[in-house]
């Protein structure tokens, strides 16, 4: 399905990013594993891919830095010669508080960081995608952008802004044969959700038609569809990976 497509995945040293890297490599992608600080974890993902005959490299870069992302792009081009796919996945931390307990300095970092990361990563790869008149852009959002939950206002609003950003990209980049789509998981079983109590996970599962929370593989499979040519005529979409929780939205 991927046929040697060169794919940059931000925040790919663990969780959804790592699982997506492994799945895309399994289907023939050449994968760039971006990481912010955990070199050891990123290298493990690379090794899990290369040990099975795939191609992957790990590159450190803060996705909010123009210079670091430009360096990542240059290194990718030196290694693989082109860029076909960007999966914007890097997690940006946020304050888990209700608005009543926040001030602007609590709220701003997530909103600015989320959009800045997507903006810079996209701007970094676009010249090459436009030149080859082909590209696949996928952005990892969240069901919390549509379904509010207590204490997630910073996260949900930031992801809502990301959803809008992607629609504008789809409209602007369509003439270049570049698609832009959003994949929005509900609660996912990863290291990032280890702190959530079992009772809370069971409650979410109970309200999910498919009876469980998502696995990283569920999200990776949706990404695979949107970065492959199986989705050649699909752009500007918001795809929930929520086991049916968002069917009424």
Instruction: Going across the biggest sheet, name each strand in turn.
Output: 3-2-1-4-5-6-9
Task: Give the ordered list of helices and strands.
Answer: EHEHEHEHEHEEHEHE
Distance between the termini: 31 Å
Query: Tally of extended strands?
Result: 9
Poorly predicted regions are: none
Secondary-structure blueprint of this entry?
Elements: E1 6-9, H1 15-26, E2 30-35, H2 39-50, E3 55-60, H3 66-80, E4 85-88, H4 104-132, E5 135-140, H5 153-173, E6 178-185, E7 188-189, H6 198-206, E8 214-215, H7 216-227, E9 238-241
Family: Belongs to the short-chain dehydrogenases/reductases (SDR) family.
Subunit structure: Homotetramer.
EC number: 1.1.1.47
Describe the model:
This is Glucose 1-dehydrogenase. It comes from Niallia circulans (Bacillus circulans). Keywords: Oxidoreductase, Plasmid. With 249 residues, the protein is of the alpha/beta class. It has a single domain, classed as 3-Layer(aba) Sandwich (Rossmann fold). The protein has 7 helices and 9 strands; from the N terminus they run βαβαβαβαβαββαβαβ. The protein has helices at 15-26, 39-50, 66-80, 104-132, 153-173, 198-206, 216-227; strands spanning 6-9, 30-35, 55-60, 85-88, 135-140, 178-185, 188-189, 214-215, 238-241. A 7-stranded parallel beta sheet has the order 3-2-1-4-5-6-9, with helices on both faces. The protein has a two-stranded parallel sheet with strand order 7-8. Helix 3 (66-80) runs parallel beside helix 4 (104-132) and helix 4 (104-132) runs parallel beside helix 5. The longest helix is centred in the middle third of the chain and has 29 residues, at 104-132. It is globular. The relative contact order is 0.15. The mean pLDDT is 93.
């Amino acid at each position: 399905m991927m046929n040697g497509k060169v794919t940059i995945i931000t925040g790919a040293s663990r969780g959804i990013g790592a699982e997506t890297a492994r799945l895309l490599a399994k289907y023939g992608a050449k994968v760039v594993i971006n990481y912010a600080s955990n070199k050891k974890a990123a290298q493990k993902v690379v090794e899990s891919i290369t040990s099975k005959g795939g191609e992957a490299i790990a590159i450190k870069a803060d996705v909010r830095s123009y210079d670091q992302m430009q360096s990542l792009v240059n290194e990718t081009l030196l290694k693989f010669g082109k860029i076909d796919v960007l999966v914007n996945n890097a997690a940006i931390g946020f304050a888990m508080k209700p608005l009543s307990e926040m001030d602007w300095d609590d709220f701003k970092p997530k909103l600015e960081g989320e959009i800045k990361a997507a903006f810079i990563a996209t701007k970094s790869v676009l010249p090459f995608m436009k030149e080859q008149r082909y590209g696949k852009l996928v952005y990892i959002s969240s069901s919390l952008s549509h379904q509010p939950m207590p204490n997630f206002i910073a996260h949900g609003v930031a992801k809502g802004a990301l959803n809008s950003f992607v629609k504008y990209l789809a409209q602007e980049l369509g003439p270049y044969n570049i698609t832009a789509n959003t994949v929005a998981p509900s609660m996912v079983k990863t290291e990032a959700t280890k702190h959530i109590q079992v009772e809370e996970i069971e409650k979410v599962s109970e309200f999910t038609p498919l009876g469980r929370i998502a696995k990283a593989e569920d999200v990776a499979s949706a990404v695979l569809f949107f970065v492959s040519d199986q989705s050649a005529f699909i752009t500007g979409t918001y795809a929930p990976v929520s086991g049916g929780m968002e069917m009424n939205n």
